[in-house]
Amino acid sequence: MGKCKHCGSETGEGELFCANCGARLEEEKPEAVVTKATEELPGGAAEEAAEAAAETKEAEHEEVTEPVVTEATAPKEPAQEEAAAEKKNAAEHKETAGHKGTAEPTAEDKTSGAEAAAEEDSAGKKKKIGSAALIALAVLGLAIGFGARTVSKNLGSPGKRFLAGQFRALSKEAAVLNSAEQVFENGFSSDFQLTTELSDRQVTALTRRGLFSGPYERILRDGSEARIFIGKKFEKAVLNLELGRGNDPVLQADFFIDPDRLGFRLPKKSDKVYVTRYPEVLQELGSESRLSTSMFADLQFPKELRAATVKRYGKIVAAAINRNNLKTEKRSYRSRVLKPELKHSLEKDYTIYSWEPNAEELERLFRNIADEMEKDRALAAWYDRRQEIGEQFAKASGQHPGRSVRFEDLADRLRDNAETYANRLEDRKFTWKLVTEGSEVRAILLQLDGGDTQIFCYERDTDKGKLYRGVKVFDSVLTEKRDLEKSGYYGTVACRFSWWFYTESFALKYSNVDFKKKSVLGLPCGKYRLLPGGDEDGDGIKFEVRNEGANSLYELKNELGSFTLKATKTGTAALPTGEEENIDDELLDGMTPQQGISKFIGAL
Q1: Where is this chain compositionally biased, Basic and acidic residues type (predicted)?
Q2: Burial, 140: exposed, middle or buried (Cβ in 10 Å; 0-12, 13-18, 19+)?
């Protein structure tokens, strides 16, 4: 409990304004002052303040600044008018409370003076009291929403608010990919049946080559079947393969692998199941590798670690963004999206936030990231394990790449070259832009050379169905443009990959896509056309994905004919059974295990 220093009324703990006279109970701190320009950052204060409430101790010590606002016209903002009215109101309350003389008035005098002021019928004083009441109600609403302590301490720094809106927009777009990511999350089992229907021209061509006869004809005519089971976290896998389905298939093979063994059976050749202790065989051949299906689980980036990593390094980037290097202006914005891959125009009056750090600020940022990387044991453990697995796979395949880069190496490299990297980015005029319309994110851009070179772009028109985004690294570009019609989404994903003197490109056009309708393999149902070479005017390879009852159908059609892959939502794959025979000795005669297995199967 306390007392209002203006009217002497008792106040409750944590209250910001006096319930009697409406005056502020404590001095405003710089970090509690947020201008209209900062408040317009997308996402609002609620989410950021909620996060700050969970980190109260840190929020209390964090310096909260605001971006510099530049506008073609500078009308008085509502927030500024309210702040001025509040300041004037508080000053007039002080004058009213002390009107009896120069001596310090008593609490009773203050109370009676405030009551007298409140009872006056003048329009001006009624307006003053009304303004204070409105401000008190607004703050009370915020306090109810996400805690008075958070409101009084921190409404979110410009850096946090700048990043939060972008993170929400990009996370929402990435959600459509979750279906593909979740296919193998809890184990996966399905039966796949591939059938073909060749065109007359293709049958004639294959017949002339001598391929459309005998076993090849059986495989093309009767199709193939593969029954697959992959356990949760890839602890084991089973494949039952049949080429040329029917009573007398051309080839039957059953395979299985777990963390310790690899086995197979060829039913038409033998009833035995041939087994090898594959990891131990590699070691006995002098390799330091130990391969197992469980390694694939280690390659996955866990969701918990992903969220922690974004939060951890997001804080560092947010701290580097302040009122000195984050500029805000309201003006028309003209899109320059990754041309010529994306042709798009976005012209309107928007609020544009531009982060333009200088070399000193960038160098400090890089060094702070490097310091955090040294302490980040969780990310380092996952990254180094991923590198080790890559080394083991390379050695098992007969390659000797040497020691791969470790996480600490990346941190050292970033620290040692922080000044060089920072100077290069400043010379190239690195800029990070956020374009908003109200609370909606319209564009996110990472640019060099004054906007002439785009590194990353994300743009969404006023029509929420239209989306443009892309990434450019050196001469390699990946872009997507999307629109929405009544029949579903349609758009194009294009890629141009360049490496030295080699360039490869392709485009994938889609239409009638419903992102809510997932197929067995996670690809959304719809129509697709793959265009090798990126020629959007070509016929390409057309295929359609659709669900029929408990099955998903992938139908591909071109001038060769049609190919249909049916995938079931539940599978029937089974481990091969029979008398087991160990073939480790056959693999330990100087050959690689892969060569030994191929030779053994060939002998069968």
Answers
A1: 54-64, 84-112
A2: middle
Secondary element (H or E) of residue 302:
none
How high is the pLDDT of residue 39?
Answer: 45
Both structure tokens of 49: 């303040």
Q: What is the DSSP letter of 27?
A: P
Are 436 and 353 spatial neighbours (Cβ–Cβ below 8 Å)? yes
CB environment 547-576: b (16+ within 10 A), e (fewer):
eeeebbbbbbeeebbebbbbbbeebebeeb
Instruction: Give the range of the structural domain holding residue 62, as residue numbers without chain letter.
Output: 2-157
pLDDT on residue 299: 83
Question: Considering just the CA atoms, what is the radius of gyration of the chain in Å?
Answer: 34
Which residue, chain included where needed, has tokens 């009107």?
99
Residue with tokens 């994306």: 342
Helix (H) or strand (E) holding 355: strand 349-355
Q: What is the pLDDT of residues 349-402, one digit of tens each?
A: 788 899 999 999 999 999 999 999 999 999 999 999 999 888 877 776 666 667
C-alpha distances in angstroms, 370 versus 358, 380, 444? Answer: 18, 12, 25
> 217 CB contacts (<8 Å, ≥6 apart)?
none
Cβ–Cβ under 8 Å, residues 432 and 445: yes
Secondary structure (H, E, C), 456-511: EEEEECCCCCCEEEEEEECCEEEEEEEEEECCEEEEEEEEEEEECCEEEEEEEEEE
Show the 3-state SS of 413-467. HHHHCHHHHHHHHHHCCCEEEEEEECCEEEEEEEEEHHHCEEEEEEEECCCCCCE
Question: What angle, rounded to 10 degrees, do the helices at 377-396 and 303-320 form?
Answer: 120
Judged by DSSP in three states, 108 sits in helix
Total structural domains within the chain: 1
More confident residue, 181 or 465: 465
Q: Rounded CA gap, 44 and 146, in Å?
A: 12
Q: Which of 304, 303, 260, 306 is nearest to 283 (CA)?
A: 260
DSSP lists the bridge partners of residue 354 as 327, 433
**Which among 382, 383, 396 is positioned nearest to 288, based on CA atoms?**
396
Contacts of 303 (CB under 8 A, 6+ apart): none
Q: Could you give the dihedral angle defined by the CA atoms of residues 327, 333, 334 and 339, in that order, rounded to the nearest 10 degrees?
A: 50
With respect to residue 129, please indicate whether it lies within any of the assigned structural domains: yes
Give the E-state strand segments of 270-341 in sequence order.
273-276, 326-332
For residue 320, the Cα-to-chain-centroid distance in whole angstroms is 21
Distance from chain centroid for Cα 536: 28
Task: Please say whether the beta carbons of 90 and 23 come within 8 A.
Answer: yes
Q: Name the nearest CA neighbour of 476 among 504, 453, 451.
A: 504
Look at the block and give the residue holding tokens 């070691």: 283
Residue 212 lies in a domain: no
pLDDT at 415 over 90: yes
CA-nearest of 165, 162, 458 to 318 is: 162
Does residue 166 sit within a domain?
Answer: no
How sure is the predictor about 472, in pLDDT bands with cuts at 50, 70 and 90?
confident
Cα–Cα distance between 559 and 430 in angstroms, integer? 48
Give the pLDDT mean for 571-586: 89
Determine the Cα–Cα distance for residues 117 and 125; give it in Å rounded to an integer. Answer: 8
Please indicate, yes or no, if residue 59 is contained in any of the structural domains.
yes
